[in-house]
Structures are given as C-alpha cells and as structure tokens.
Amino acid sequence: MNKNQIKTVSKVFLFIDLHNYSIAFIQLGEKHAEFIQDYYILCGDIISYHGGEIFNFTGDSIFSSFFPEKVTAAVESAFEIKESFKKLTGRYKIEGLTEIETGIGSGDVVTGVFGHRNFRKKDYFGIPLIHTSKIMHHRGIAVTWEIYEKLKENKTYRFIPLSPIKLKWQSESLEYWSVQKKEEV
Prior knowledge:
By secondary structure, this protein is of the alpha+beta class. Helices cover 34% and strands 35% of the residues. Strands 1, 2, 3, 4, 5, 6, 7 and 8 form an eight-stranded mixed sheet that branches.
C-alpha cells in the first residue's frame, strides 16, 4: 500500500444499526431487500444533506463520518433518521418490530484506502471508532464523552448519563450519554 494514502484526521462518526432487525426481516419476507435499500437511501439522503459521508454499509448497519465542526449536524441527522425511519416502517407495516439505534463519537483516526486487490475502499481505524461502535446499540441516540463535551451547553439538547461500559483493554470505563431534544422530554 502506498503510505501517502494513509493519514490521521479528526472526524465525527455516526453509526446506525437496526434493533431486532431479524424479526422485521422475517416479517418482510420477499420485501426485505427493498426495505433495506429504502433504509439505506433514507439515511444516506439525510446524512449527505447535513454534510456527512457514508463509508460503509454492513447488513443493517450504516457507518458515516462528518468533519469535526459538524458535530451538531451529525446529531441532527440522527434525530431526522429516527423520525423518518418511523414513517418507513409504517409504509412497510412493520411498526414496532425494529427501531433505530445510534452512536455518535469523535476523535483522531487513521484513514486511507485499505483491502485486498479484489476489493479496496476508503476506511477509518482508531479508538474513536471502537468507542462509537460500543455505544451504537443504545436504543435511541447515544453520544460519547467527546460529543457530550462539545454540546452540553447547547440549549436544544438534554443529556442523560448511561451506565458506563467496561472495556477489556482500557482501564477507564467508557462513559456515554443518551441525547434527546428538549421539546421531546
């Protein structure tokens, strides 16, 4: 690999997963592929509108990045996706079977083009990605300490501390918060 393709950058990450998607998958039957494609488009349109970029789809998970100054845009994307997803599940008549789980984190990561000669793509590696992936299974919108620190004075949001996650490889537990819009509370 050409070392000029690898660099360290600061990014905000928005990871999305579907809670209990396997139940919805069975209920959808032959329409499951159409549903997933509509879900990818819904999320991609909202993320792109707010200045983010999707860098990976894996099953029902979506991984996206934003520039560091776009913290609020990443959080707003999550809220819009959550609301739009409710409409999508209604259209497919699977309301309540699955819902959005979201993790948002940030920090310095390594980026570049990685992979095998048969499949190479832009990707990111680093602790902020691991932290974001650990919190993304909160049913709602969860943020890491870094995001909380940047937005805690924002009058639009309310932050609720969640039980820290003990990581095998890190002495400190991973602190994270659920974020809600104040008018939702």
